[in-house]
C-alpha cells in the first residue's frame, strides 16, 4: 500500500523544508522510499549464478566420466593435455582440424608449453574457439599472433637482477618472492616467468627452479639474514604443485623465522583445478596447518590466486572456495588484463562481483607484462585506466581491485594512474618508483593499439630513441600527457 508522507527536513542554511518521495510499505509493513533506485534486471544478478551440472560430458573424451571421477584432482592431473595430438583426441569433432592445425603452429612460436586440465578443456567454447576467452589464455593460434613490440623481453621484470640466491627475488624493501618450484598445473600463455616456468619450447630454453631442498635452505638462510624481510610470497611455478609435506615444510619454516610476519601462497590452481581442494585432503590440511600456525603466532597467511574471467568460476569453484572460507583461510585474486579476455568494463565488473560472491577478495588487476610472444594479449594503458573508472564505485572498496602496472625493468607495481607522463600517440608511459629503485621506468603500449604512422616509427631504432628521450624529458619537465 502507499502511504502519503510529507517529511519535513530542516535545512541549516536556509531553514526551509523539503518533501521526500512518498513512502511505501512492503510485505512486512516496513516503510521505504520509492524510486531511489530503478528495479534491477535479472541479468544484473548474473554474477551469483554459476555453471551447473556435468558440463564436461560435452567433450568427447569426457562424455563417460562420472562426477566422482571428474572431481578427483589426481585424475585431473593425470589426464591434463600436454600435446596437440592429445588435444585433438580429447575434443574430437567438436572443432575443425584447421583450428587445431593453427594451434599446433602457434605453439611452435610460443614461449610457453601446453598443459591443460580437463576442467579447463571442458570450459572452453569449442563452438567458437577463436573468440573464447579461456582458449585465448592457454592456446596460441598462429593466425592471431602479432609482431612483438621491440621493447619486450622474456624476463621483462628483470627478476634475475634482483635474485641474491637462486629462486629468490628481493626487490621491495620488506618483501621477497620465493620460487621453490618451476612447474604449474596449467601453463598460461602470458606467464611473466616464461623464462623459467615449464618445459623448454622451440622459442625458449628455460632457466629451471626445480624442487631442491638445498636451494630452499639458501633462500631460508638469506631471508633470516635480512631483518627487514617481513613478507614472503611462495610462488614458482605454482605452489599447487608442491606436495603437502613440502608446502607445510616451507610454510612453517618461513613463519618460524622471527622477522617474517606474513606469507602468501600463490597459485593459479583454484581457477583451473578446484578439484584439489575437494579431494586432496593432505594438501588442504597442510594449508590449514600453516594458516593455524600463523594465527597462533600472531602472523598472517593468505592464498593469492588468479581468476581472469567470470566463466572460470563454476559450481565446483564455489564448493572449493566454501571449504577454504569455512576453514578461515583468506583468498585474494590477482587478474591479468588481456585483450579479448577481460578488456571490457562489463566483463571485469562481472568478474569482480563473482569473485566477491565466493569470498575471494579482488586484489590486483595487472596490465599485461611486456613478455615476448604475447603481443596479441596486451592492451594499452589507456584501456586499463578506462576500465578501472567503471569498476570503481560498482561495489565496496575492499572488493575493488587496484589496477597496476608491474614496471618493466624491475620498478615494481605502480597504480596505472600514477605515471609521470603518458603519450597515447607513441604509447610510452613513464613511471618512477622512489621506494624501489632509481628510475625512470617505461611501459610501452602494444603496437596494435597505435597508429600506422607510429608503428612505422617503432620499426626504426633511431626513431625509437627519439620517442623514448622525448617521453623522459617531458616527464622530467612535469608534463602528465
Describe the structure.
With 481 residues, the chain is α/β, with parallel strands linked by helices. The chain folds into four domains: 1-36, no CATH class; 56-144, no CATH class; 159-414, Alpha-Beta Barrel (TIM Barrel), CATH 3.20.20.70; 419-481, no CATH class. It is built from 16 helices and 15 strands. The protein has helices at residues 67-70, 73-78, 84-91, 97-108, 118-123, 133-138, 213-225, 244-256, 269-272, 275-279, 281-296, 315-326, 345-357, 381-391, 452-458, 461-476; strands at residues 2-3, 23-25, 31-33, 168-169, 175-178, 231-234, 262-266, 300-305, 330-337, 361-367, 402-407, 412-415, 421-423, 428-431, 441-444. Strands 4-5-6-7-8-9-10-11-12 form a nine-stranded mixed β-sheet. Strands 1-2-3 form a three-stranded antiparallel β-sheet, with no helix packed on it. It has a three-stranded antiparallel β-sheet with strand order 13-14-15, with helices on one face. Helix 8 packs parallel to helix 11 and helix 13 (345-357) packs across helix 14. The longest helix has 16 residues, at 281-296. It is globular, with a radius of gyration of 25 Å. Mean pLDDT is 92; it is low at 1-20.
